[in-house]
Amino acid sequence: MKLYVQQSIHIQMIKIGGMSNSSVFQIGTSGQILPASYLYNTGGFVEPAPEPVKNGPPETANEVVVPLSAPS
Fold it and tell me: Is the pTM higher than 0.85?
């Protein structure tokens, strides 16, 4: 059976609380999403990575800064 979907999506605002290795963020329709998570140590590391350094003033240290284009 073939199913055709036509859709129109208008997004006012999206707030994503968190994403992880196996997260799926989807807008629209998909026939089937199969979960898959692969973890490879291609660098041959044997100890944990150092903690990230937070740059900037303390009031913005916990904010995620992503460059976005201006709304049209």
Answer: no
